[in-house]
Give the backbone structure.
Amino acid sequence: MPRERLYLFDTTLRDGAQTNGVDFTLADKLAIARMLDELGIDYVEGGYPGANPIDTDFFAQKRPMRAKFTAFGMTRRPGRSASNDPGLVALLDAQADAICFVAKSWDYHVRVALETTEEENLASIRDSVRAAKAKGREVLLDCEHFFDGYKAKPAYALACAQAAYDEGARWVVLCDTNGGTLPHEVERIVGEVCQKIPGDHVGIHAHNDTEQAVANSFAAVRAGARQIQGTLNGLGERCGNANLVSIIPTLKLKKEYAEAFDIGVSDEALARLARVAHSLDELLNRSPDRHAPYVGESAFATKAGIHASAIVKEPATYEHVAPERVGNKRKLLVSDQAGRSNVLAELDRIGLKIDRNDARVTRLLDEVKEREAIGYAYEAADASFELLARRSLGQVPHYFAVEKFDVNVEKRTNAKGEPVTVSQAVVKIKVGDEELISVAEGIGPVNALDLALRKDLGKYQSFITGLTLTDYRVRILNGGTQAVTRVLIESSDETGDRWTTVGVSANIIDASFQALMDSIVYKLVKSGAPA
Ligand SMILES: [Zn+2]
């Protein structure tokens, strides 16, 4: 049976830009648009030309891409002609391949928010679609609050969609703007719409307010819709939009969808999906969600020993899809709950060949257990585990030694008489016969120590230039006077790899120092720095 084409529409740059704390610059928008285009998204919605300077700039020139570059805006205002509405004129002049209009489709909103008649709203939809078609644009209509509108007055909600379709809109997109509709309702309503408007002209735009935006998108597809709108990592206002990073692999890897549909995302692009998701987080300066389906660090992580031994034999026993398909990797957590098989499997993943009965494996397992008993957490710190394992096999060179460090924090008043806190670190290291002293100021003591440590590693400096710290987490264990601090540091480098290291001490600076040292040494090993 030939597969049907299913289209993906990304609105990260428009609806996703509504996310609390997200502010895209023009450079961010260009970078994200390129990422989406390379991924194989069919429509990239860039924003709302005329609404703010960045979006206006973004649409001021042609942005050549394989995807259809789409501008978003409102249909003409009630009581005006299309040519006499400056907002609509700006939208029609935008350098875009397609225009996505948003229009009311809930009679309640037409009356209360728009303060106009139902007929005038329909006329506005028809006029706007016609004007955009006359400009040679492909046209989409987002029917705002469609599902609530349909429940209140089905004939009117449908009439809005029908008006756009009859006037030649390529797509009529049914929006669950409040995000409160449930999958069985979406399936029923979209099914009814598809009896009037062919499904290959119907799209779904779901919000995640009941944690079902992805499920709602699939419910719409099951009922006949052939366009899915969503965002990368589910960005979006309130609880977000449908997450394309979860939708894409499901479409590609789950039999029911893979056999029925073709999408613009190739297998090669799918294998870069985890990288795409993490690049967006990097751009937003956020830590990736470890538990994100398909692409999260924990998505293919297994803890218990008995599962681990089965996974090594036959990965499909505990994995619903192969992690490599989406650019992720299997991770077996080494922890005191797990046994020898986890340690062996992890050694195998790292690429350390060792006989399973080798005494060094037993020693390593004992060491992991002892260290975890005092607070180390190796299942969260893959790089520290790898160093421990490599050290037990004598595979970590002695690159350098820190002979001494000194960190101080000073609170004083500055020249303007304002209170300021200043941190400074001095580090003395020895690389071979060379002694190096570095001094750095930081926004806090750990930052100062990190900057001083990485300032001058002598002959190793060039190996760590791409190293950056991306996350720092502190946890106080067994509180009170016996408190121990655990620090986890996540680092990344120029290749996009990320790793986590751990340090434990009664002193937070010392715990941070251990984790920082592990991160640097791990990077040196990874880069193949000579001893
Ligand atoms: Zn929306």
